[in-house]
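Give me the fold.
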Amino acid sequence: MDWSTAIAPGVDDIAELAEEARAALPPPFDFPAKQVVIQVVDLADADMLADLDIENPFELTGLYDGIPMTERSVMDQPAQPDTIWLFRRAILEEWVERGDVSLAELVNNVVVHEFAHHFGWSDADIAKIDPWWE
C-alpha cells in the first residue's frame, strides 16, 4: 500500500460499515433495527459524557439513545427516534490500540452491542454471549 496517499476513515466510511452491520442482522432483529437512526460523529459531546459520568471521550465508541423495546408502552410518545451514536475517533483509537481486528469487525461489534441495548439487553446480558470487551 502507498501510505503517502492514505487517509483516516471518515464519518461516511464508518456509517457505511455500520449499515453493513445492520443489514447483516438476522430475523427477527432485522425489521426493528431498520427503525433506528444511526448517527456517526467524531466524538461524544459534553452532555452525553456527563450523563454517563465519562470524562475521556475516547472511552465511548457507541451509545444507544432511546427506549429499549422491552420497556416500551403504547403510551410512550417519543420526542425523537431511537438513535445509535457511533463515535469515529474513539472507534479509530480502539482499532489502533487493539491492532488485532479489522475496522469492519470493530464497527460491527459496536453496532451489534448498541442494537442489543435497543432490543432490551443489559451490558451483563451482552457479556454472557459476547466476550469481545474482556
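Residues 72 and 106 are 29 Å apart (CA to CA).
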